[in-house]
Design brief:
The complex is a heterodimer.
Chain A: H1 21-25, E1 29-39, E2 42-52, E3 57-61, H2 68-75, E4 83-88, E5 91-92, H3 101-105, E6 108-112, H4 123-132, H5 138-151, H6 167-179, E7 185-189, H7 197-212, E8 216-220, H8 224-229, E9 233-238, E10 241-245, H9 258-261
Parallel strand pairs in A: 3-8, 3-9, 6-7, 7-8
Antiparallel strand pairs in A: 1-2, 1-4, 4-5, 9-10
Helix pairs in contact in A: 4-5, 4-6, 5-6, 6-7
Chain B: H1 2-16, H2 18-54, E1 57-62, H3 68-80, E2 84-90, H4 92-102, E3 120-125, H5 131-141, E4 147-151, H6 154-196, H7 198-206, H8 211-256, H9 265-290
Antiparallel strand pairs in B: 1-3, 1-4, 2-3
The chains are: A alpha/beta, B alpha+beta.
Chain lengths: ~260, ~290
Amino acid sequence: MQGTKVVRPFPFFRAGARASQPQLAKPILVLEDVYKFFRPDQPTLRGVNLKVERGEFAFITGPSGAGKSTLLKLLYRELMVDEGRVLFCGRDIGRLTDKSIPFLRRNLGIVFQDFRIIDHWTVFENIAVALEILSMPQRLIRSRVAEALERVGLNGRGDEQTSNLSGGEKQRVAVARAIVPEPALILADEPTGNLDPHLAIDILTLFEEINSTGTTVLFATHDHSLISKRDHRLISIDEGRVVEARQGLKDWPGSGIHTLVG
Amino acid sequence: MEVKSAMTRARRGLREERRLYIVAVSSLAVAFLCLGATLLGVTNLDAAADRWGQSGRITLFLKDDADPQDIAQLRVVLEGLSDVREVTHVTPEQAKASFLEEADVGADLSSLPKEVFPASLEVSLVNGVTRERSESIATRLGQFRAVSDVESYRSWFQKLDDLLWGARMLAAGLALLVMFCVIAVIGNTIRLAVARRRQEIEVMKLCGATNGFVRGPFVLEGMFQGFASALLAVLALLVGYLALHESVDSTLAALTGSRVVFLGVWTWLLLLIGGALIGAIGSALSVRRYLAV
């Protein structure tokens, strides 16, 4: 069915800026009865229903293989839903044509566990690439990258080769690349997975700071220590089903996190 | 802005993959050199044919017992023709002397009897007389009583035409071969570059790069490789031409009456633009095939 209807590219819809009232009233992300199959008899996601409001910070958690990464991949259209709908800003991204996918991704900032930064590029080049794609003038790119570097605590280190950075610094570069185009939604897929606990808290704090400016953040992790320290919304996935906790586990009465995330 | 960004990224790609590209450009330069050398041959054959065609000549060999009055009458007729520039009567003695002067066979030929060299009328035609017109004049002159034989150099022109046709076919065949070589070599080079830059491509795709944005620099890199190869070949040909043309010139002038010429501006411009264009096509085909974005 894909490609039967041409969907116009998404307009830029930056965090906290110029959103119309009807747009603001809509949740930024809605998943309706979403199924994803890799094997016909065993769906990885089964009937996922989820609503994420604009400006929210939510943890997505669950054991390895539960479907966290699959869920995120559906959001940035690395994978297609097999059943159900995924609405981003009210639009069904399952119906986007291949040509429109880049325009969807320009509204998203994506951060991975393995950083995915180019080691032989400088810090500046790694971040600037997200703006070059938008055909921004160099002058603006320079100022926006400098601003992003400041936000992630790497002020003045744009000329350094990324291969010389530590793991935590590399992840900060990845975060800077994700936030520099001012996306509406940040998808973080185990961003602290390769970092020690102290750095993990630093990176989580960084995401929270980004969230405080109005950007919606979905933070996938199976690190219980991180989840238990914060009060954010928890979306737990187990065997492809969503078990949702409206509030974080810090003050969850009478139950430990293990009851939810296994 | 898109083009500028693509050029910046292509420059970075060329810098990062310079070893790979140097090997590719060197191999392609050899292919372009072969094509360029053939084109140089065609250009010079063309120039010689052009020169011979324009300086038309007919030789009327006279009978041994030709009446001097008939010869004088023939000269009058010839000089009256608007196509004729000059008529020279060459006696057997003059023909022998001229032969002995020009022949370089390393043997004493002065003992040859003068009867071996028939008297002739050398007819020079004005510039611009077509080959067909020259043939028609020669046929008519052959009917005069004093004339035993007419040489209009038709067989020479025919041979030259055949040679030119063959050379053009060879050049066309080589051009096709070079085109396939360029597409194959650049295609493979770009495929390697794509494989080596897989992570960059993935990052760009995740940041929302369009197909054009990702493919653009690779196409430019292919274009550059094609252009650089053709330029290297043209420069090598030029160096060879400058080094050799003086020594070759005198021999060629003696043989054909024309001098060595280099490729015309349009020919080498065509080589450069063609190289760039084929490079871009090879690269675009490869990127389309190996870069699923």
